[in-house]
Amino acid sequence: MKNNIKRSIFVASLFLALGCSEDYLETAPTEFISAEDLQDAAQNNPDLVAGILSGIYTTMVQTGTGGTDLDHDDFGQKGYDLYSDFLSSDVVLAATNYGWYRGVTEYVPTQDFTSNSNYKPWRYYYRIIRSSNEVIATLGGNDAVPELAENRWVLGQAKTLRAHSYFYLSQLFANSYDPSAEILPLYVEPAQEALPRSSTKEVFDYIIADLTDAISLLSDFNRENKSQINDFVAKGVLAYVYGVTGDAAQMKTVTEDIINNGGFPLMSATEVVGGFNDVNTPGWMWGQDITTDLGLDLVSWWGQMDLYTYSYAWAGDPKTIDKGLFDAIPANDVRKGQFFNEPGGDYLMPLNKFYDPAKVIGGQRVITTDYVYMRIAEMYLLNAEAAARLGDEAGARARLGELLAKRGVDSAYLNGLSGANLLDEIYLQNRIELWGEGKSYLALKRFKKSTTRGTNHLSNVGQTLPYDDERLTFEIPESEIQNNPFINTQN
């Protein structure tokens, strides 16, 4: 990753400037190089467009990519993973000396379209989309299949990043999956004028088309590191998409392919209390190798979550597991040991799930612990879910049992579960296994569940909200309404 960053300094800076203009629809200046010249150059110089792609990956971890300069919750993909974890209520802001995320935990930005915290995820994902559109256009456009293998691989990664961004926007900015509802402007060219919102079906059809193309384009790609997207990562995103659209058959097929052919083993009992800090962990499918070159410190996911980092978690804003969810973890489950259970049982920090290996309280100042985006355990859970929805309950129990065996849990109890009870258990295991990784919110909406806050929250204790409650979904931001003549309402 370090070499890619250095290689791409000029090109990535140029394209990040395109993606970071104050108005998303603004046409970027081209005094340095024309789009046509760039396309011609890219045909024979794969490093040129690979550098642009590297810049997009860097955007995913950079501070300020949600459009702010000073907000300490504005640091890319993991920042919005944490937003969604708070909205699901599985992650608790247990105390607050500094105030970051207090509004999110009280559902303020989801009810205020003028809020900066409502604006940031919209700004971030459309920034990724715009930069991805630049890469795709440079390589010949949406229907292109480049002759050079290196360019095909870059195109496949860019299409996955675009699809991934539209998928997250569809989850954060729409209450539920309604094919006919208009939800998002669908920009697929870098210089398009303002567009009205497309329907959910149109957006998801495009996401599926992008991912299908990407899987084909990446079929012979052997990536240098897990910071890059390969075909199995694209398939993983596609599995989540099928889960939302209700296509359980495709969801099952795709996840079985990943499980059987991806070469990713489930994390062991030792690894799940090993810090979640190394992208080379075999069970990680996709993550970010965080190096000193990236310059991350306090303003980062680790700066919000880890007691052993110079962080808010250490200085007075601890993030913990919901007490009700913690109590639902069996005593013999290794994952219960991920959390520090002090006398009284309410202060449940993830001291054995997310930590800097040195384990010096407040010690890590320059961040080198890595970010996880996707794990093979997610595919086991999605596969079990798909099997259960298709009526293959034996298959669902067997797949879930494989995961539980790695967590020290005797899965014999699964034999007594069927129908809604089996799906409820799969949902619970999503929440336990993937706690703090930004996936609980996706499961909440996919399973169409309600969330009830435990006793250790600072606000709304005991309150129950259904998945499609307005307070759990962001609004179209004020800036988009002001700049896009086709959008004049928040919803």
Automatic annotation (TrEMBL):
Question: Residue ranges of the SusD-like N-terminal domain?
Answer: 113-242
Alphabetically sorted, this entry's keywords are: Cell outer membrane, Membrane, Signal
GO cellular component labels? cell outer membrane
- Chief location of this protein? membrane
What InterPro entries does the record point to?
A: SusD-like_N, SusD_RagB_dom, TPR-like_helical_dom_sf
A Pfam family reported for this protein in Swiss-Prot or TrEMBL: SusD-like_3
The protein's superkingdom reads Bacteria
Domain RagB/SusD, chain residue ranges per copy: 347-464
Task: Spell out the subcellular localization from the entry.
Answer: Cell outer membrane
Annotated family = Belongs to the SusD family.
Name of the protein in its database record: RagB/SusD family nutrient uptake outer membrane protein
Species whose genome carries this gene: Gelidibacter salicanalis
